Amino acid sequence: MDLKDKKVLNVNDIRKILPHRYPMLLVDKVLDWEAGKKITAIKNVTANEEFFNGHFPHYPVMPGVLIIEALAQTAAIFAFMSAGAILGDDATVYFATIDNARFKRPVEPGDQLVMEAELIRNMRGMWKFKTVGSVDGQVAVEAEVMCAIRGSTEKQ
What is the pLDDT of residues 96-136, one digit of tens each? Predict the structure, then answer.
């Protein structure tokens, strides 16, 4: 089965789409996606994450920039899946902009961050999304993100 035919993607599928690797791969699973509309993915936040050693030892919380990065990676997966493409060896997904970011609750070890990205527009390889990250049904962060695909892609 081709990736484009799957609605649920595991981490091995995600690695075929994104160039990120540990410790920067921040999407564990895609729960569902609909081409041209939206995607839902998860990040299982564990106490073993290296950043918790310093952020903060007395009260560990996931850094906001990494939460935004996880949302951007979710959006990038969506862009590739919607385009029916996979990365070529020289392709990169760039995080282009972030607007209207609002942090509403901390993300802590043991949380499952549910990430949603809804397409606002796609023009000439620039993809803009409304994103939301939530934990236990509570919104943790909202932001608009834009990503750009540069380099070669191959059709699936």
Answer: 999 999 999 999 999 999 999 999 999 888 999 999 999 99
Domain that holds residue 80: 3-155
User: Domain with 143 in it: what CATH number?
Assistant: 3.10.129.10
Distance separating alpha carbons of residues 28 and 10, to the nearest angstrom: 7
pTM of the predicted model, to two decimals?
Answer: 0.93
Contact 141, 72 (CB under 8 A): no
- The more confidently predicted of residues 17 and 27 is 27
Would residue 58 show up in a list of annotated catalytic residues for this protein? no
Question: Looking at 15, 20, 38, 55, which residue is catalytic?
Answer: 55
